[in-house]
Design a protein that fits this description.
Helix content is about 70%, strand content about 0%. It is built from six helices and no strands. The longest helix is centred in the last third of the chain and has 19 residues, at about 100-120. It starts with a helix and ends with a helix.
C-alpha cells in the first residue's frame, strides 16, 4: 500500500470522532513529513477523509494489514482518548482484514509496551 493511501486511512481514523485534536494534528504532520507527502497529496487525503467518513482502504497483504492496524492504533491514541466511533471503525477494519482478536490484542499490548518503554527514564 502506498504512503498516500496509508495517510488517507490515518486521516479517516483521526476524523472518525468528528474532529481532530492538536495532538492528532501533530502526529499526522509527523507522518506526512516522514512519508514525504506533497501539499497536493495532503489536500487529496483530506478530501478523501471528508468525503468518505469511516471508509478505510484495506491493503491486500497481511503484513500491510498489520502495519495499518498499528498505525490506526497510534492515530487513535494520539489525542489520549479512544472514542466509541474510533473503536468501532478499528474493530470493523480488523474484522474485514480477517485479523483475529488475539492478534489485535497482541498489537495493542506491543504498542503499550513501546509507549511505556519510551516514558521510562534513561539510565
Amino acid at each position: 500500500m502506498n504512503q498516500l493511501k496509508k495517510f488517507k486511512n490515518l486521516l479517516v481514523m483521526a476524523m472518525a470522532d468528528g474532529g481532530i485534536s492538536e495532538r492528532e494534528i501533530k502526529f499526522l504532520s509527523e507522518r506526512r513529513e516522514r512519508w514525504g507527502l506533497s501539499d497536493s497529496q495532503f489536500a487529496e487525503a483530506v478530501q478523501f477523509a471528508l468525503n468518505n467518513p469511516g471508509q478505510l482502504e484495506i491493503p491486500q497483504r497481511r503484513s500491510e494489514r498489520i502495519e495499518m492496524l498499528q498505525d490506526l492504533i497510534r492515530t487513535m491514541a494520539a489525542d489520549g482518548q479512544l472514542s466509541e466511533v474510533e473503536k468501532r471503525v478499528f474493530a470493523t477494519a480488523a474484522a474485514v482484514m480477517e485479523i483475529s482478536s488475539d492478534d489485535v490484542n497482541r498489537l495493542i499490548d506491543d504498542l503499550l509496551l513501546k509507549v511505556e518503554r519510551q516514558r521510562e527514564p534513561q539510565k
